[in-house]
Design goal:
- The protein is mainly beta.
- The protein has 1 helix and 19 strands.
- It has a 4-stranded antiparallel sheet with strand order 1-2-3-4, with no helix packed on it. Strands 5-6-7-8 form a 4-stranded antiparallel sheet, with no helix packed on it. Strands 9-10-11-12 form a 4-stranded antiparallel sheet, with no helix packed on it.
- The chain is globular and about 45 Å long.
């Protein structure tokens, strides 16, 4: 029988980390219904302590872990959806290294945040926050000051209905963003410049209603590939790295938005696919084309 630890009301998102520094995996879970985040400390045997709840903003959704104040202890960042009476915010909760948290500061946001992630996007050794704004179709970057506070957000355009994931997709040592655009049936890649800025998004076709992404090396070439879950298409799009060029340029040398066809992506793979009629949502490099999982 699967274990089913209790949480707060209407759990919305979960993240895994060692929150009390005992080398055992713990859980942090946002509870949309009662405006809390639950911390479940792991026992290391697949079981967990009873949840301890901490206040968030109104209707918390996504949650991420990072050491935001530089004390070596894991902290939490929670995206709050708000409502017509309560503002949309990101709340930072600082950890004491024992699995306990206290509210530190909240930052107003302009939109409903569908996902939030942590990374060092300007190379200063301090964790930053990046968020996908699903209604205004952008991602927001908040550069960290290293003391638990963040600078004002800077926004970058995406497709419609974005959710995001972080990775180094062009293998230049700088963090990039991949964004699933739910309403466009596309995925956007925003290459990071390493100084806290991003290049304009370049888009790639997916299946219908892409809603979330995962990163892995699916073809064993040592490069990050992407898997995209397509809600309405009942499929997963797998896009291998060779199908994600670091830059797409028009004849005048300017970057441009481009949606490569399935045949173009197969040609880039060198797989000699020829007929791509069976390749609906996925590509593979080095071993031919295949249908989405």
């Amino acid at each position: 029988m699967p274990l089913s630890p209790r949480t707060g009301t209407d759990p919305a998102a979960v993240v895994v980390g060692d929150l009390n520094r005992d080398d055992k995996a713990d859980l942090a879970i946002t509870n949309y219904g009662d405006n809390t985040v639950s911390v479940l400390l792991g026992n290391g045997d697949g079981t967990f302590h009873a949840h301890v709840d901490y206040p968030t903003g109104n209707h918390p959704g996504s949650v991420a872990i990072g050491d935001f104040n530089g004390d070596g202890q894991p902290d939490l960042a929670v995206a709050n959806a708000g409502d017509y009476q309560n503002p949309r915010t990101v709340r930072v909760l600082l950890g004491d290294g024992e699995g306990r948290f206290q509210v530190h500061v909240s930052y107003p946001t302009d939109d409903y945040i569908s996902s939030i992630a942590v990374g060092d996007f300007n190379g200063d050794g301090k964790p930053d926050l990046v968020m996908a704004n699903s209604e205004v179709n952008s991602v927001s970057l908040l550069l960290g000051n290293g003391d638990g506070s963040f600078q004002m957000h800077v926004d970058y355009a995406t497709g419609n209905g974005p959710s995001l994931i972080v990775g180094d997709f062009n293998h230049d040592g700088k963090l990039d963003l991949a964004v699933a655009n739910y309403e466009d049936d596309t995925m956007s890649v925003l290459l990071g410049d390493g100084n806290g800025t991003f290049q304009p998004h370049v888009d790639y076709p997916t299946g219908h209603s892409p809603s979330s992404l995962a990163v892995g090396d699916f073809n064993g070439d040592g490069k990050l590939d992407l898997a995209v879950a397509n809600t309405s298409g009942n499929s997963v799009s797998v896009l291998a790295r060779s199908g994600l060029p670091s830059a797409l340029k028009s004849p005048d040398g300017q970057r441009r938005r481009h949606l490569p066809s399935e045949h173009e992506l197969c040609e880039r793979s060198g797989a000699g696919c020829g007929d791509t009629s069976g390749l609906q949502h996925g590509w593979r490099i080095g071993s031919g084309c295949f249908d989405s999982i």
